[in-house]
Protein 1
Amino acid sequence: MMLFTLSTTRRALSTTSFSSASYCIDMVKKADHASYLTGLLLPAAAKPSYFALAAFNCETSNMKSVTSDNSAGELRMHWWRERLGEIYDSPNGLDDTYLTSPILAELQPAIKNHGLTRRFLEQIVDARQRDLAITAHPDLTSLETYIQNTQVPLLKLGLECVDVRDDNADHVASHLAMSTGLANFIRAIPFLADAKIVAIPGDMLTKHRIRSNALLQPSSNPDERLRDDEAVKAAVFDLAVVGNEHAHHAREMFEKSPCPPEAKSVFVRGVEQAMFYKKLEEVGFDVRHAMIKEVGLNSLPVQMAKHRYFANCPF
C-alpha cells in the first residue's frame, strides 16, 4: 500500500501540465526532498496549499545565498511583506500582475482556502530578513531563536493546510520543528564551510576551542588536524543532543496528548530528521559522512510511508 501510494501520487504529479502548481512542486522536490515526500503523503485537498507554502519557504530561505549584498535581499523581503499584506488586506487580493509569480498564484488560494495565519507567514519573512545581516550566529540561543521564528511557524502552517488548529498539535509542532531545524543546520555545516562560512555558533567555537580556520582550511599538521576534527565533532554532538531532546519531547507529547488524526500526515516530516540523527551518531558525529543513503525498505520514502500509515507515532 505505501509504495503504491507514493508511486501513484508521483505519476499524477508528473503527468500534470506545467503550471504554477507544478512549478511549486518541482521547486520543493529539488530544494527540500523531505517536505516533497511529506506533500505526497498528504490528503489530496491539502497538497496544493502545502506545496505552495513549502515553495514560499524555499524561496525566502534561499534569498541569503543568491544575493551578493544585504540590500537586494532586503528589497526582496520587503516585496514579500507587501504581497502578503495585499493578500490579507485587499478585498480582491493580489493584482493580476503579481499572479504571474507561480508561488504567489498558489499561495493566495492557500491562504484563502485554509485561513492560514498571517502572523506566521510574516514571522518567517521577518526572521529571514534579520538573518541577512548575520554571517554566523554568536551563540546557540541566537540559532534557536532563528529556528523558532522560521521552522516552528512553518510547521504550524502545515497543520493549518490539513485544517488542524489544536493546542496539543501546536505543542508537538514546536518541538518537532526545533529538532528538524537543528538537523538542517547541522547538515549545512560542511556546505557552508565550502563556501568559506563558519556556521558553528560562536559560543561553541569557544567552548570546544575550535580554531577559526579549522573548517575552512584544514591544517597540514596531522596532529592538529585530528584535534580540529574531534573538536568539530564535539560541537556537532552538542547540537545533536539539543535536537534529539526536542524530538524526544515531541514524541512524548504526541503519545500522551491526543492530536487530531490529520496532524499525523504533516508530522511525518520528522522521520527524515530522526534518520539523520541516527546516522550522525553511527558515524561518530562526522557530519560530512552523515548523509542518508539507505535504499529499499530502509529508504526515506518507505520509512515515511510506514510511519504515516502503520506507526502509532508518525516520527
Protein 2
Amino acid sequence: MIPMNLYRLFGRPAVAAVATLTLALLGSVSSAAQEDVDARSARGPLPTAFEIEPHFVAGTAPPGFGQGSGIGAGLRGSVVILRKGLVPNVNDSVAVGVGLDYGRYHGNWSLSSGWRDQCLHYETAPNGTPMCTDTTLNGGTYTYLYIPIVAQWNFGLTRRSSAFVEPGVALYYLRGHGFSAVPAGYLGGRMRLSDRVALTLRLGYPTLAIGASFML
C-alpha cells in the first residue's frame, strides 16, 4: 500500500508513474532469462554516445537552511567517455552527467515529526539584544536550483533495460542564502520504448526524478 503522505506531497499522477515504471523495470529484470541478456555478452557497448533527459523531480529534507519536501522539474545531459566500460565481458559504459533542477519546497510538507518557522528579519532592542520581527509561516517556502555533476556507470541488463549508479556532487542555490554544495548519489534504471527513447527513474539525494531519456 502506498503511504497516504506520498499522495499528499507529490500527487496521485506522480506516484502512479513511479509505481508503473518501477514495476516495469522489475518485470524486465525477471524476464532476463527468456531474453538475450546483454550483461553476459562479450563487451558489447551500450548503444549511445549522448543522452538528454527532461524530468520531474521531488525531494525531501533539502540541504542548507531549507525545510520540508518539494517538487519541480529539470534537465540532465550525459556524455559517454568509456563505451566499453570498466569490467571485462560485461556490457557496461561510463559517462559524465551534468544537470539543472528546480525545486520548490514547503516546510509544512515535512516527512519528519514537524517543521520549524525561521526568523526572516532581526532588529536590535534598546538593551542590544537581537529581536526577531518577521518569521516564516507554516515552515516557510524555499526555492532551490541544483546543478548535479556526476560520474554515471551504466550496466545493460536486457535488450530493453539498463541500470546505473551515479556518485557526484550537487551545487545548489537557495534563494536568500546563496550558493553551496552537497555530496550527491543516485541509483536508477531505464526502460527502452524504442532504440532512442527510454523511461528513466532515478532515486537518490538530494532529489529523485522520473522522466524520458533521448539517446543520440
Protein 3
Amino acid sequence: MNLRQGVLPWPRFFVSTRPFGTPLGPYFVKWFLTAIMILAPPAGDAFNFVVDLKIYPMSLFNLTLAIGIYLVRHRRARAKLPRATFKAWDIAVVFNIAVNLYMIVMPWYPPPTGRNGGDVSFWYATYVVVGVSVIIACGIYYVAWIYLIPKARGYRIRQEVLILDDGAQSHSLINVPVERLVEWDANHDALGRTVREDSGSEARGSGDEKITVGTGKV
C-alpha cells in the first residue's frame, strides 16, 4: 500500500511490473530484509529479540486496521452508500480484534518463571517497550515531515498520480508552495488526479519540487 501511495521513495521503480508483469522491486526488498533477519542476528538473545520485536507493532497495526474497517462501514452507512461487494465477514473482523487485543495485553504479564524468564535472558517485556518506542518515534517523524516542516518552510505536501508506461499506477508526493495551494487543489482531486488538463499541466511545470520520501529531505 505504501508503494501505491508514494510514501516510499522511487515509486516508479517499486510499482513497475516490467519485464515479467509483476513488481520485482517489492519482492527484492522483501527477500533482502528477510535474508538479513535470518542471517545477521546471532543465535540466542539477539535473534529472539529481533523476532519478538515485530510482534507488538504488528498487533497494534492489525488492531487499528480492524477497527478502521468498522469506522469506514459506519461512515458509508451514514452516507447511505451500499456495502462493498467484497467485504470481510463481521465475525472474522471481531475475531481479529479479539486476537490482537490479546497480543497487546498479554506481553505485559510476566512469565511464571519471573521477569527474566522469557525467551531472552533479560527483562521479558523489553521488546514491547522498544516496539512502542519505535511507533512513537515514527509518529513524531510523520507529524514533523507532513505538518511541522512544511508549515515552517511555507509549503504543503500533496500527491499526484503517476501512470507508468506498463499501465501501473502510483503516486508521487510533491511540495506545493502555500501561495499556489488554492490553484493546485482546484485543479486536482483528493487522489492527485488532474481535474483540468490545461491548468493541471501548467501547475506541474511551474516550480513544484519533488521530495525525497522517507529520508527527511524536503
Protein 4
Amino acid sequence: MAGSGLTVRAALVLAGSRPGVLDPVALAEHVAHKALVDVVGQPMLARVVAALRQAGVEKVAVSADQPEVVALAHLLGCEVIPPGAGPSASVAAAFALLGAPMLVTTADHALLEAEWVRDFLADSPAEADVAVLLASRASVEIALPGSRRTYLKLADGGWSGCNLFLLATTRAEAAIMTWSAVEADRKRPWRIAARLGIGTLWRYALGRLTMDEAIGGLGRRIGITARAVAARNGLAAVDVDKTSDLAQVRGLIAGRPVKDTSSAPGSS
C-alpha cells in the first residue's frame, strides 16, 4: 500500500509530570525531570526536539509543567502547552492549538532520529486518520540484543510501541478520546481486544488476531481509519524508562558497545 508522503509541520513532545510520582531515572540522575537527563552532552528533550526539526517539523510544542523543563523548552524555541490530567488530555489540548496533521512523541525518546520520523510518514497509509509506529520483536532483538521490552503478542508476532503517533486528520480527535484507556491496557492486550467486540476477542483468544487487525478494528469502533506502521529500525522502540535503559541509550549514542542489562535490577 502506498504511503501518504504527508508533510507534517507540527509536533507535540509529552514531558509532563505525574503528581506524586517520582521518576526513577530522574532520581538516579539528580534532576527534577527525566527530560533534563544528560545523554552524551545534551538533555533528552533537546535530542528529541532536534530530531523532529531535522525531519522537517517546523513547529515543536512541549507539554510540560515542571519549571526547569518549561525553561529548557523555551530555550529550544518550543511553544509550551500546559499538560492535562493525563496524556490524552495533553494531546487534546495541543491538537486544539496545532491542528492536523500533528505528530506526537515523548521526551524520553532519546534515540529518536529524523530518518525514523521521515520513514514513518512515508510508510503511513494515505487513508489513515491515525497511524501508530510499532516495532516487531525480531527487529528490536536484531537492533539491540539483550534488550527487555514489553511486547503485545499477536498472531503476527510480538510488537512494541515506539512512542510515535500521527494524527493525520481532524477525525483523529475521536482517537484522542480513547487514548488514555488504550495506554492503560498496553500490557493487557486481551482488554484492548475486548474493546473491539466479541468477534475480535475470539480471534485474539485463538491466536489469530494480527496487529493490523487490532489497530484497524479499534479505529472502526470509534469511527476512524487507524493503521499500524512497522518501524524499519527496531531501535525506535527503545525509550528510557529505567536506569538500565539510560545506560544502553548512552552507549549507543556514544558509539560504545552496549552492555546487556537484561538481568539488572529494575529490568522488566
